[in-house]
Amino acid sequence: MELRQLEYFTVVAEELHFGRAAIRLQMTQPPLSQQILQLERELGVKLLKRTKRHVELTSAGKVFLQEIRRVLTQLERAKDAALRAERGMLGRLVLGFVGSATFDILPIIVRAFQEQFPSVDLVFHEMPTPMQIEALHNKDIDIGFVRTPVVDPLISLWSVHQETCIAVVPKLHPLAQRDSISMGDLSTERFILVEREVWPSWYDDILSKCRDAGFSPIIRQHVKEIQTIVGLVAAGLCISIVPSSTAKLHARDVAYVTIEGEAPHVEMSIAWRTDNNSILVEQFLDTATRLMGNYDKVAVLSDL
C-alpha cells in the first residue's frame, strides 16, 4: 500500500466520479482505476461500487475514508513539524545558567527567543560555571550562561556582558552613607564570599584586589549564591563585593556602594560545544547576537 494510493482513493471518494477525480489528480482515468483496484486487492475488501454511470462508497469504503483522512491529516502535521524542526522552530533546548544571569542577561534573551520561537521547549538548570562546563561535555545541556574566563578546547564562548563590582553593606553601616569607597576602606571588615569552587576567577580577583590595597580580607563565611550574600549582609553579619547588577535585587536592609579605582570585575558569556551544529543552538545565538550586539562568536582560552 502506497501513500499515493490513499490520496487517489480520497479524491475518488470525494468526487464519486473517476473522470473528475482524474482531472483533479492531473492524470488519465485508466491508471487511476488500476490504482484503486490494486488498493482493494491489497486490503481484501471492496471500497467502491461501480457502474457505468455511478460510483458510490461501500460500507467498508466509508469507514476506510474516515480513517485515511485522519492518517493524511497526521502525515501533514508530521511533515510540518519536521520542517519547523529543521528551521529551528520546534524542539527542545536545555540551558544551564549561573544564578546571577537571572538579574538581567538571561531574561532578556530568553524572552526574545520565546517570542520568536514559541514552540521550542526551553528547559533550565541553575548550576555554577564548572558544573556547566561538565554538563556541556556530557551533552546534558546545550547552552550555558557562564562566568568567564574558562579554558576548554571543546567549548566555544561568546562574551555578552562585562561589569565592575560594587560593595554591599548593611543599611546602618557607616560606609552605607558614602557615595563611593576604596578597596582599602574594607580592610577591617568581615567578608562573605561565594565559594571559590563556584566562581574561581571572581574569587581570586577579589583577593587580588584586596592584596593590591594592602590587606588580606577577613572571610567569615562562604556561600554558593549571590542572593545568599545579600541576605546575610542584610542581617548585619558582614559586608561583601558583588557584581553591580546585584543592585537590582533592591534588598531593603542593605546599601550598594561604588568602589573607586581598580575594582574587581566579572564577565558573563554564553557557552556551547564547538561541535554542536544544532539549528536550535544557532537560532538562540542569533537571537542573543541581535540583542546584545554584533560580538564575534569565538572560543576563548583563559584560566578556569
How would you describe the overall organization of this protein?
α1 crosses α3 and α1 crosses α4. The chain has three domains: about 80 residues, Arc Repressor Mutant, subunit A; about 90 residues, Periplasmic binding protein-like II (D-Maltodextrin-Binding Protein, domain 2), CATH 3.40.190.10; about 110 residues, D-Maltodextrin-Binding Protein, domain 2 (3-Layer(aba) Sandwich), CATH 3.40.190. With about 300 residues, the chain is of the alpha/beta class. The strands form three sheets. Strands 3, 4, 5, 6, 7, 10, 11 and 12 form an eight-stranded mixed beta sheet that branches. Strands 1-2 form a two-stranded antiparallel sheet. A two-stranded parallel ribbon has the order 8-9. The protein has nine helices and twelve strands. This is DNA-binding transcriptional regulator, LysR family. InterPro entries: LysR_HTH_N, LysR_subst-bd, WH-like_DNA-bd_sf, WH_DNA-bd_sf. One of its GO terms (molecular function) is DNA-binding transcription factor activity. Keywords: DNA-binding, Transcription, Transcription regulation. Belongs to the LysR transcriptional regulatory family.
